[in-house]
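One thing: can you check what follows?
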Amino acid sequence: MKETVKVRGQLRQYLSWPLLLSLFLIFGNIGVTAVSKAGGLVLFPFTLCYMAIAAWIYLYRRRYILRGLVEFSAEYAWIQKQLLSEMAVPYGLADEEGRLLWINDAFQEILTEKKSLRKNLLTIFPEVTKADLSAEEAAQIHTTYQSRKFRIDIRPVYVAGDEDDENAIVADNQKMLAVYLFDETEILRYRQEITDEKMVAGLIYLDNYEEALESVEEVRRSLLTALIDRKINKYIGAMDGVVKKIEKDKYFFMIKQKHMEQIQEERFGILEDVKAVNIGNEMAVTLSIGIGMDGESYSQNYEYARIAIDMALGRGGDQAVVKDGGRIQYYGGKSQQLEKATRVKARVKAHALRELMETKDRLLIMGHKLGDIDSFGSAIGIYRIATSLNKKSHIVINEVTTSVQPMMDRFLNNPEYPEDLFLNGAQAAELVDNNTMLVVVDVNRPSITDAPELLHMVKTIVVLDHHRQSSEVITNAVLSYVEPYASSACEMVAEVLQYIADDIKIKSAEADAMYAGIVIDTLNFTNQTGVRTFEAAAYLRRNGADVTRVRKLFRDDMAEYKARASAITSAEVYRDAFSIGVCPAEGLQSPTIVGAQAANELLDIKGIKASVVLTKYHEKIYLSARSIDEVNVQVMMEQLGGGGHRTVAGAQLEGVTIEEARGRIKEVIDNMLLKGDIS
């Protein structure tokens, strides 16, 4: 309204200028007359004539000028309307409900319907919501209409009406919607083509190359190698890729990104193809594949591939890991990783650990939340190493479970051990300085360590664990020793003890703690055991570990035994092969431990491939998953936010009921069966 009044005022001033100039001439004529009467008389007729013309223009010709302005305005509005109607960009107006009031020709051509004006944006484009229509700011929606892709821009427009005009068609400040359509079909197609042509870097490692060669006759070893090379070259060559053998058991390859969707859908068939190669070898060859993609440069893709192959090897091999920017995806991993016969790696890690310890004055040793006896025993083993090197050390434990308490009581109030041997997280944080070292045992995920804040406070961190790695890892560790083939963290620490120094003497209580960790994690040497497991147990037995004493420490009380029996009795068999039970938590000090024990016992039932026991504790639902050999429960639990080992894994769920958690477990099982992750 203000803008309209301003324009009228300018027009009125423009038409009034001749009258104002007439006054100016009158004063000029008076001045000339004062100087010369003859001159004034000569000028007076001209002044009078000018005044008459000015009055005639103002009084009689003004309406013709206004008529011309109106005609120009009408022609301009018609031109503007034609421009809007013929504009190449599809444009339209809609009301607040989304009903189209007016659309231009380009918009009409897209809709191709005669009665388009009666249509509603909500029905034409399902992606448009009522929230988009009621938004106070412009909204952008991407949609597909008749096989073409569009971006819809919806912008609110407020039409100013005349408040004093009762007959006004449009109310004051009425909201309307300006709708623009932008065809993105070609742009998106070109973008997809650019993405498809990007280079993907990959690494292929043979997990058990040496072992497989040793299992076949010497004269046929070159044939086995040639067949594997041919399988890999044929697989990559079918995608127009390039593969280069960089070592006897390592390959580097490059493919275009457009092939990734296909090989991900078939879940990397090369994993099974290579295992099928058999020329008399007793051991099947398995692969680990690491792929890096969607990086900012080729070198970053290669770095992603290296991270991915490390993840694949850390998770046990026989699988593919794809690192797509910040996202990591896993494929395969159904085979059990074979134990390495050589202890070279253990010796190298032991020497590296000693060098780090010698540069520090204090050690903090930490396991996972609700630590079990394997976590406790491995921490005790690291304590013995630190003590033998004359280093002050402490074990960080925030909450002691019933399974650990009997063993821990042997160290409490024992004159052979300092009173500050065990600290909670807050007490340990007060001791941290530049000469402090943190050793994390039996866990490699920062979120489930007993005191995660210590990971940010201590600069020198060492990780020793036997669980398969997940996407979440301790990234700032200076030394990481993660071996999924190991039965337990206690087995790994027992090996390190044998190489880190020659004069270490283990006390009987310490040997018992470590031996108990191996016994519990292997279910009395029936699960995940190898030659090195028994060698570690023998080493601990020679140093005073007593089998009978350990067994007495871990006997159950009646409440725990009944709870475990209840979980087994109420277990449901799903898909004829998966047992899902619920462990009661009432009256139990550590119900999660009892749930894990129940999951172990459910595996003794014929036909059961995997078992999962749910336990509600501290407003969370804890899942304990176990299997023997056919199912990778780590992959199963990872889909529920957890992780663990191939045959021993777990997860925690919040904000769900027992029945909802049971339903999510069944959904994961169904998906794994559908994808072939479970044989």
In short: The longest strand covers residues 148-159. The mean pLDDT is 86.
